[in-house]
Amino acid sequence: MLRAQQWWDGGAANLLLAPALDSSPRRPTLQPDADATNRRTRWLASLSLPAWPLSPQWLLYHAAGNGTRLGANLSTVLGQATVLYGEWAGGHAPGSGWQNQLAGGAQYTWPNKLTLGLEWQYDGSALDAAQWAALARQPAAYLAYRAQQQQRGGLPTRRQWLLQACWQDVLPRLDLALLQHRDGHDHSSRLWLEARWRGTRTDYALQWLQQQGAPGSQYGTLPQQRSMQALARWFF
């Protein structure tokens, strides 16, 4: 990947280029598999102006075979504890018309280091409620569609809510975190919880994941409905 940057008072411009290097998957060897990351040429140009009102950022992204997309991000701080933000991306997808993706939300931080955030997400390339319900009755088409949306980084349905919470130093060096996704059409949900203790050279974390919903829903169909894992990280 190649990267170029230019800074000036009140703004910055960036250009990222990932050229196509290989188009043939390799068998597991010690050789680098460029096909996994650089199968097609991609580039991203951005312009950020944090000194302007709403701190705008504009983006232009292109991937060979997938067209070009425009994007814009806006954010502002209200008082000393509230952040409002909005994100938009749009472009022509292969075989379809113009499609928009939107996200907007707010975050508030209390003096005790507890931060709560609520975000609404919209994906115009995804199925609406009626289409999603009909697709659930076609197992092969359902799995193919889920794989397609996952590959392109899109939502399976058009609307989703995201609740975020982070509480630093609940006790000395102990942080708690929560993420909950809720589908706006089938009302299935995914809940992720973490407790993390930060040592001088070691972190320990306990994570819990729960996904629930009706068969055929976004989160109710996933095979892993509940899981727990413990993690340890050492710094050298």
Rg, alpha carbons: 21 Å
Instruction: Supply the number of helical segments.
Output: 2
Helical percent range?
under 10%
**E-strand count:** 13
The end-to-end distance, rounded to whole angstroms, is: 28 Å
Beta-strand percentage?
Answer: over 45%
- Spatial arrangement of strands, main beta sheet: 1-2-3-4-5-6-7-8-9-10-11-12-13
**Helix-strand makeup class:** mainly beta
pLDDT < 50 stretches = none
| Helix-strand string | EEEEEEEEHHEEEEE
Average predicted local confidence, pLDDT: 90
Shape: globular
Largest sheet at a glance?
A: 13 strands, antiparallel
Brief synopsis:
The protein is mainly β and 236 residues long.
What does this 3D model show about the protein?
By secondary structure, the protein is mainly beta. It contains two helices and 13 strands; from the N terminus they run ββββββββααβββββ. It has helices spanning 129-135, 139-152, and strands spanning 2-8, 11-18, 42-48, 57-63, 67-78, 82-92, 98-109, 114-123, 159-171, 174-183, 189-198, 202-212, 226-234. It has a 13-stranded antiparallel β-sheet with strand order 1-2-3-4-5-6-7-8-9-10-11-12-13, with no helix packed on it. A hairpin with a 2-residue loop joins strand 9 and strand 10. The chain is globular. The mean pLDDT is 90.
